[in-house]
Write a structure and sequence with these properties.
By secondary structure, this protein is of the alpha+beta class. The protein has a domain of 70 residues: YhbY-like (Translation Initiation Factor IF3), CATH 3.30.110.60. The protein contains three helices and four strands; from the N terminus they run αβαβαββ.
Length: 101
């Protein structure tokens, strides 16, 4: 699924209030980082991840690799923080609110 620019902009605005919940170390997109991001995406859909500046690849490439591995979309990369989104239709939503609130 490819997002429209408007959908991506809306998610970027929502992500402003989030803190990084996943930390990707200098090993980059290893199994532990992918598993951790995948677990949080399953329950929250919209996730910020802090990327190590010592990673072996460029941060945007690392974010893209993590997105491919977790079947998610990169919403934005700013500095060492990347935001990912993956819709989960099985999440129970309270009062129609998104799960990251």
């Amino acid at each position: 699924m490819t997002m429209t620019g408007k959908e991506r902009a809306q998610l970027r605005a929502e992500a402003n209030r989030l803190s990084a919940t996943v930390h990707v170390g200098h090993h980059g997109a290893d199994d532990a980082a992918v598993r951790s991001l995948d677990d949080v995406l399953r329950t929250h859909e919209l996730v910020k991840a802090s990327l190590s500046k010592n990673a072996e690849m460029k941060l945007k490439e690392l974010a893209r690799q993590l997105a491919v591995s977790t079947r998610s979309e990169v919403i934005q990369v700013i500095g060492r923080t990347a935001t990912f989104y993956r819709h989960n239709p099985d999440i129970k939503r309270k009062d129609g609110k998104p799960p990251w609130l």
